[in-house]
Amino acid sequence: MKNWLKTIFLLPALHSCAVAQDPVQLKYAEALTTASAKTHLTLLASPAFEGRGTGQKGGEKAAHYIADQFKSYGLKAPVNGTFFQPVQLLKKYYKAEGLQINGEQYLQGKDFYVQGVNTLSSFQADEVVFIGFGIQDEKYNDLANVSIKNKIVLLINEGEPKDKNGNAIITGTHKESEWSTSRFKRLQEIAKQQPKLILATGSYVQDNIKRFGTRLGGGSFSLANPKAEQETAVNTVPPVIHFSEKLANQFLLPTGKTIEGLTKNPSSFTFPLRVKAEMGMVNERFYDPNVLGLLEGSDLKDEILVVSGHYDHDGILPDGTIFPGADDNGSGTVGVLELARVFTKAKAEGHGPRRSILFIALAAEEKGLLGSKFYTENPVFPLANTVVCLNIDMIGRIDDKHLDNNHNYVHAIGTDKLSSELKQITEKANMSYTNMELDYMYDDPKDPMRLYYRSDHYNFAQKGIPSAFFFSGLHPHYHTPEDTVDKIDFPMMVKREKLIFHILWEIANRAERIKVDSNKE
Q1: Does 3 sit behind a cis peptide bond, omega within 30 degrees of 0 on the bond before it?
Q2: Running DSSP on this structure, what letter comes out for residue 433?
Q3: Which pLDDT band, with edges at 50, 70 and 90, does 15 fall under?
Q4: Which of 153, 171, 295, 416 shows a CA-CA span of 20 to 30 A to 516?
């Protein structure tokens, strides 16, 4: 019993030795506060920043706000004397802003949506050919003896004709033919007849507009380069404009017919309808900046540690809907700002890092990790001198996995993919200072989310730079207008910042740079 009691009393002392804390580190880690984090995030996720969209005013405003903070902290402007590295971006989208029918203007995402790959072209006609279901089959053909070349056509883009017993005419049974079960067959076959424009209707249209609205036709983004710009649209396939049945019935008013009636008794005929439209694929080149701030080290200043987090989110839609992105990735942006603040404070007070730290707020992550891709292809500092990338993307919430149990956690993703030492440093920092659950579930190569490959650190990892991604997990408000500041768990957000702080402090000041000694999937 005496020996047992002696052991019990020794345990706290042994634990203290095992997790000895550096009082200097603790001092600056404690300078990371919920009050400061909340001030930044409340602003960045406010309506004034309009969701920080790529190529939008809110994104530009966020970039300038970050640069102003970097300047106020005393970071160096490392891009030819500025904090901005312009990322050359190319947006390809389908422009359909000039559609008029019988003199009335219609809006994409509200009244219709378009499928098209044609170059920007004008379309005009005073009459339209209605072609029933648009089916061309041996057993049933809506286009028999009907020429639609260079004409505008209207069709019912769902279902197929049935007999009085409810059997499909083509199959002779209740089972529908491939003209109905194949999503694109009828439109592809109609396109072969070379109409200049296709108007399509069906019950699906209103559902799609309700679900996707003004996101329809949002386009795609890439890094601008000659090859991307040379990939031009083609005019061989006519665009398809999808209208609701309600609007289609308005167009058919002069005929006395309705879509409901024509579904039961299909026929083909020409009717008067004045159509005027200009639509097609457009390339738009623009710049959104990565925002860089450098804290110069001392005797090992040529070696660079990167701390990154993307500041962009989904922005504002044409109808005024804002996606605040408080967690994604306002929280990570604030993490970068706060770490920059406390490390510069430490240096000002005589405790600067041996290695240099490059703080990067990255652009266009939501468009395909484009800001980090641009930086790693156009590095401001040699990648050979870049020791590590610690990426912060969504650290402000409690995910579904942990919601009903332990909130004291962080997902640490990729820490040992390229360097066993990075994982060891992460675990030691956590054991010594923050004592959170380090959740490695997303490191499993079989994990269906494959998150290691889906944030900005991965572009650094592809260049052989040990990289890790700190993340609090997915939640129901991910990429919705409900990702708001009131849902942020600020104490946990700051605790995750503190873990990253301690990892950085160790890597910045240790004698040897961390080894690249692994290549895990």
Answers
A1: no
A2: I
A3: very low
A4: 295
